[in-house]
Amino acid sequence: MQTLLDMSLSSFARADLLQGPTPIQRAERLEQLLGLKAQGIGLFLKRDDHMLIGGGGNKLRKLEFHLGAALAAGVDTVITIGGLQSNHARLTAAVCARLGIVCELILTRSVPKAEVDYELNGNVLLDQLFGADIRVLAGGSDSLTEAEKRAAHLREAGRTVLVIPTGGSTPLGSLGYARCAAEIAQQETQLGLTFNQVVVPNGSAGTHAGLAAGFQLLGRGTSMVKSYSVLSDRDTSADRTVRLTQDALTLLGSSAVVEASEIVIDGSQLGEGYGLPTPAMLDAVRLMARAEGLLIDPVYSGKAFAGLLGDIRQGRFQRGDNLLFVMTGGTPGLYAYRETFQV
Ligand SMILES: Cc1ncc(COP(=O)(O)O)c(C=O)c1O
């Protein structure tokens, strides 16, 4: 049955980069090890790391909408920005390669890390393989202004250019995760269960905001989604997420007003800052690998999963609850953090 959300989404151009839903798997070994099975609590994994282009990850959902609009506008060049180890930059480079569009990346040294693997391995290696043009700026640089300047220069030379801001987290990009909410709701019907809580990392907020907007339009409320902030402190993340959820809902033609108290964000996992490892993240990445044979990344999913483990251990869930942890990809980051994991 077509929902209001499906109908609203269908009016936007979308490049089909996913080619179907990503799987949901039950994490049975984790359920055993964490004592969830005995308590009658289900733990499921939404495999958004399992996609068909560029190594996969959450950014592909946002890029479906950005590139849909870009193709309709005849764009020949995409410029995007991010940290040196940006997954969004890597996936933009991969998608542009697939679509025959020139890709320029303006990357910033936003994390105080200078190991050779951080500089050259992981996403940086893949950006190069996908044929992107890469420029690296010092930490603290205004890369968006640089991208706009570069775009103006290319436009003067006759090129048609799209600039995609950090993480693809505009209202349009967030629609990718509103669409994911619809996908999860369909999978609930197929699985014969209902999720109480969908858990994600929060960086530039588009993943949280899109899911929250989608669940709001499905009549489930924005508080279905809980995120752990990994880029900024809790309040900064919350402001950004409330605004983006509101803008995504407006873009979808809804007049719903987002209540800040219904946007659920936990700031406990940031540690010393964006991209800086925490002991809880290291434990979480190792637990996922050793219990389920699955990879999560050190910057985003690793910190979010650490937060979820903390909530589970503090007994925050009850019998009958079903939790859905979204695996957002970013595993090339593991190679950039080799020294962190090998000490
Ligand atoms: C692997 C991964 N997970 C999660 C996120 C966070 O998503 P968002 O920026 O939409 O909050 C990002 C990007 O920032 C990411 O690369």
UniProtKB/TrEMBL annotation:
Give the record's keywords alphabetically: Pyridoxal phosphate
The Tryptophan synthase beta chain-like PALP domain sits at 17-329
Asked whether the UniProt record includes NADP among its keywords, one would answer no
Show the InterPro entries listed in the entry: ACCD_DCysDesulf, TrpB-like_PALP, TrpB-like_PALP_sf
The protein's required cofactors? pyridoxal 5'-phosphate
A Pfam family for this UniProt protein? PALP
**UniProt keyword Electron transport present:** no
Q: What is this protein called?
A: D-cysteine desulfhydrase
